Amino acid sequence: MVGADDSELRQLTVESSGGGEHAVAVLNGSGAARLANVTALAHGAAENQALSNSATETSLRSVHLRGEGGVGIGLGNRGAPGVVTVEGSIIGGTTVSVSNDSGHEVHVATSRLGGAIDNAGGGVFRCAAVYDDSFQSRTRVARPPVRV
Question: Most Cβ neighbours (<10 Å): which of 9, 73, 92, 125?
């Protein structure tokens, strides 16, 4: 599934069962996009990414993102820095829940992040009412790569 500028994806389940090098369930690569009530699962490849994001403005509300197996990433931010807002969602990966390689500003509220957080891009990463798979609070995320 590929996102478009100024678009909204709602009420959808997407599964990518790769094989080979990469499995990406949703590719969001332009302008402003919103995802609401979307479930995305990627598995079966060397790198599995539920949502690969390089958009400048992304809003995620009530989404469930999961990257399983190999290098598993729930949400991967790459490309030109932008702003990602996550609310009421579950994001997980066997390797990291969120990979922020590009300096995106990420705001996460009332959500579960299952897996480490990689903020190698050094962007602002704010959490409010965020918890992990053990229901332990994640109140802040430090700079490059860290598990909190």
Answer: 73
Domain range for residue 61? Answer: 7-140
Question: E strands within the chain?
Answer: 7-16, 22-28, 32-42, 47-53, 57-61, 64-67, 71-77, 83-87, 90-100, 105-118, 125-131, 137-140
Tally of domains within the chain: 1
pTM: 0.90
Using alpha carbons, select from 105, 104, 111, 99 the residue that is nearest to residue 126: 105
* Cβ burial 23-34 (10 Å sphere, 16+ → b, else e): bbbbbbebebbb
Q: How far apart are CA 58 and CA 60, in angstroms?
A: 7
| Alpha-carbon torsion, ordered 5, 59, 9, 64, to 10 deg | 140
Per-residue pLDDT tens digits for 75-121: 999 988 889 999 999 999 999 999 998 888 999 999 999 999 999 88
CA dihedral 91, 93, 95, 101 (to 10 degrees): -50
Secondary structure (3-state) at 140: strand
The answer to whether position 1 is within a domain reads no
